[in-house]
Amino acid sequence: MSNEKVNYDHSDSMGAVTSPQTSSVEEPGIDLVYEKKLVRRIDIHLIPILAALYSVSMIDRTNISNAVIAGMMSDLKLNVGDRFSIALLMFFIPYFLFELPSNIILRRVGAAVWLGSIALAWGSVTIGMGFIKDWRILVFCRVLLGLFEAGFFPGSIYLISSWYVRYEVQKRLAGFYLLSVFIGGFTSLLSYGLMHMNGIQGLAGWRWILIIEGVLTVIVALLAYFVIVDFPDKLLQRRKPFLTESDIEIIKARIDRDRDDSQSDPLTWSIVGHHLSDWKLWAYALLFMSAAVPGYGLAYFMPIILKGMGYSTSMSQILTSLPYIAAVAVAFSLAWCADKTRLRAPFIVLGCLLIIIGMSITAYASSNGARYFGIFLGVAGAQNNIPTLLAYQSNNIRTNSKRSVGSALQVGFGAIGGVFASTVYRQKDSPKYRNGLWATMGCQFLSLVLLAFMTVYFKRKNRQHKEGTLDKPIEGHPEFTYTI
Q1: Would you say residue 230 lies in a domain?
Q2: pLDDT digits over 108-127, tens only?
Q3: Which pTM was predicted?
Q4: List of residues 6+ apart from 250 with CB closer than 8 A
Q5: Range of the domain at 91
Q6: Is it true that the peptide bond before 303 is cis, omega within 30 degrees of 0?
Q7: Contact 115, 152 (CB under 8 A)
Q8: CATH number of the domain that residue 215 is part of
Q9: Half-sphere exposure of 354 (CA within 13 A, CB side)
Q10: Range 361-368, long-range pairs (CB < 8 A, 24+ positions)
Q11: CA-to-CA dists, residue 429 to 84, 86, 294, 356, 424, angstroms
Q12: Taking the CA atoms of the chain, what radius of gyration do you get in angstroms?
């Protein structure tokens, strides 16, 4: 096939970039039919195992909410002061601090070894949490959980974005994330069944929730050692790679046609500092933080809000699952439309509006049915915005080193969103948590302001690129333009 560079500055009237891979015009010497089959093969080997691991990650970090209403609150005296909020909060401190170092290690050690190892570690911690007797040990375990889980999500985003071109990536990120959400959506149903093991071997039902779900994590982590796909330039180091050397060269060539960064570049602390001087990375991070607040707030407090509506413990756990299942269908449909239209910001705006409307209904509607419907809207908006924001950043940066730093910073600020959610949903506001719901809505208004500013900036830079009046190339490449 031809390795000739092609111009990928095919901007549409909205300022978005049309990648040649997704255009209808075939480039000479490129077998697009074979490339399509190759991409499908990558999908099968890459997305399901990462989704399975992230689903158990989400289960292990949020199952405390199901354990709490199944008896942990009283057994560990978490209802004293702000103990429950402290236990939630302490997860996010190491989660934020260790994401960037983890991405550096990931690149050096390899995806299968590193991601499989940290999953095994946090699964073991989750099992151990099923045997604790003191709330302070719970806090320590949550710190360890945050430490080990820190590297998985940004590492997965970095890995996925290294395999695909820009207008394929949101469907893949959505598939990875939403499949995890779909599986995680059944967590409450699983917890409902596990809590009925109350008394077996002398252990309370909430302890069985943690133990069994931790065992599931360990099983998936052991499988990951043999299944996870490494970076394109590292894949041939595996004993039985699923792609040939020729296949990998095709993948690298299509990435170079799209954004010219298939080759890894050095990642040192001075380069990290250089990338962090780009204000846009901080804007992407703030947007992701705002999206994480409703995600974490609803994950941790939805069972308590539902129980406050008068539902039983069992029914609260069952009703917690349904909004996530519906959200998967909504968010994946929007992801398909986003890749089809090659737009990102308008779909993020839609997600923000769904959250604002949904949280308003949940906070102030008099009917429990209406309040529950508001949760459906809020969850759909939150689950749409997570993969869309990941794609928004991924589409607008270049080089492997910047991708590594950007994904770690962005997801790290998601941890700050988790800290914020843990503190604004205060125990004294239970069970309606109106202050927390208003804080969640406030974050969405911040996102709308940031998106408006960035859209104006991106359109201006794309126009200057088209007119040839840029003072320096966008992202250091003469043919790169921003995705709106």
Answers
A1: yes
A2: 888 889 999 999 999 999 99
A3: 0.78
A4: 1, 34, 35, 38
A5: 37-259+278-454
A6: no
A7: yes
A8: 1.20.1250.20
A9: 25
A10: 362/305, 362/437, 363/432, 363/434, 363/437, 363/438, 364/434, 368/309, 368/310
A11: 13, 16, 16, 19, 9
A12: 22
